[in-house]
Amino acid sequence: MRAYLSTFRLRRRLELQYRGAVVGGVVCQIFFGLILVAIYRAMYLGKPQAMPLSQITSYVWLQQAFFRMLLASDPELLDKIRTGSIAYDLCRPLNLYGFYYMRILAQKMTGSLMRAVPMLIFAFLLPEGWGLALPASPAGLAWSLAALGLGLLCVSALENITMGFTMRTLDSRGMQAMLNLLMMTFAGNILPLTLFPDSWQRVMAWLPYAQLLDAPIRLYTGEKPPSAAPGILLIQAGWIVILTGIGILFWQKNQKRIVIQGG
Amino acid sequence: MDTMKLYVHSMRMQMKSQMQYPLSFLMQTIAQLVMEGGEMMAVILLVNRFERLNRWEAGDLYFFFGLMSVTFYLTECFGRGITGNFPYLIRTGQLDTFLARPRGILTQVLCSAADPRRITCIAVGVAALVLGCRMSEVQWTGGKVLLMAEAVLCGSCLILGLFLIEAIFCIYSVKSVELVNALTYGGRSACEYPIDTFPRPLRILFTVLAPFALTLQVPGSVILGKPLYDWPEWAAYLSPLSGVIAFLLIWLCFRRAMRYYRSTGS
Asked: How many CB pairs under 8 A join A and B?
C-alpha cells in the first residue's frame, strides 16, 4: 500500500511542476466559459425554462473548472508500449493496474484542483446570472464534495479501461478519441446534461459518465436535494466497483498477451 | 502557377501517405465524425429546447453552424501545415531545410501536411448547411452563390492568419503558446452562433480583432435574407475581404518574425 501512496505523491509533485501551463489553460477555460454562458443567457432570454439561469451558469463554470478531470492525462503508457520500456513496469513488485490507477488519480486530482481554484474564484466574482452561484445549502455543498471524490475515483477507473484498450493496439488514437468524446458528451461538458431532453436525462443519469461531474454539480446547485444524495452516492459507488473490476480483469488479460517491442 | 501545381501535387502525396494505414485512418475519421456530430447534436438539442435565439430560427442557426464548420475544417484539411504542424517544425529544427529551398516558407509549410480525416467534419457542416437552407427557405441566386464561396474562402484566410499568430509566437519562444489558440478555437465555438448573441466586448473581439463576424456572418445573414446590419447590399460583398486583410497583416508580421528565426539545431 505504501508503494501505491508514494506513486501517488510522486505524480502529484510532477503535476505541480507545470504552473506556467496552468495559467494559459485557466485563461482559455475562462474564455470558453464566458462564451458558453453568453450563449445560454441569450437562449434563456427568448424562452425561460423551469430551471433558473443561475443553475445553468453554475453548471457551466463547475464543468469548466474541473475540465481537466475528464481529459485523458497519461500519454506515457502509449510510448512505453511502443518502445518496449513497459518491461520495466512489469518488473515492479506492484500490481500494474494499481500502479497506473494511482498515477492517473494523482494527475487528475492535482491537475484539476490547480485549475479549479483560480477559476472558481473568478466565477464567484462575476455578477449574478453570469457567474457561479453559492451552493444551495451547506448540506448540499458537503454532499457534492463527497460525490466529487467518488466521481474522481470513477473517472480514474474509466480511464484505466481506456488504457487497457490502448495496450491492445499500437495505434489507438482513433479509439482513444472516440472514448474521450463519449466522455465529454455524456459527462455534460459539451452541453449541460440538464439541457438534454428530459426523457434522455432519465437514462443518462444512470450511465457512469454522469457520475463524474454531473452528479456532484446537481447536488451543488440544489437541482437534486440533499435527501437524494445517499442514493446518488450509492450509484457512484456501484459504478466504481464495476469499473474497477472490469479494469482489473482487462489488465490481467492484457498482461498475459503483451508483446515487448525490442530495441 | 507553378507554385499552385506544386501545392496540388504535394496535397495528393500527403493524402496518399495518410491512407497507408487504412484501419487507423478509418477509426480516426469516424472519431472526427462523432466529434463534429456531437457538436451538431448540441445545437439541435438547444434548438429543441429553446426553439429560437433572438430573431434567429432553427434553420438560421443550423446554417451558421454549417458555415463555420465547413470553413474551419476545410482550412484544417488543406492548411494543416500552418494549423497544426508549425510549432513542431520549429522545435525539431526541420524549418531549416525549408530555408534552403527556392520557394517561399509559407508555401512549403502549407505543402508539408494535410489532414484528410477532417472530411467527415466537412460533411457534417455541409449537411447542416443544406438542412439550414431547406428550413429557412433560402432563395438561391447567382450572387448568393458567389457570396457564399467568397465567405468560405475569406474565412479560411482569416483562420490561417490566426493560426499564423501562434507560429509567430513560436518563432520567438520555440515552445508553442496554446493561449493564442483561444482566439482561434474560441472564435470557432462562439461564431457557430450569430454574433448578436454575445455581449459587447465579445462582439467587438470577433468583429474587429478576429473578424469572424465580418467574413462569415455578414454574408451568411444576407444569404438568409435577414441582414445583421442595415448596410447597402454591396457591403456584404466587401466585408469578407477583412479576412484577407487580416491574413495579409499577420503575414507581414510573420515575415518580420522570420528574420529573427534562430534554428534550434537538430
From this structure: 99
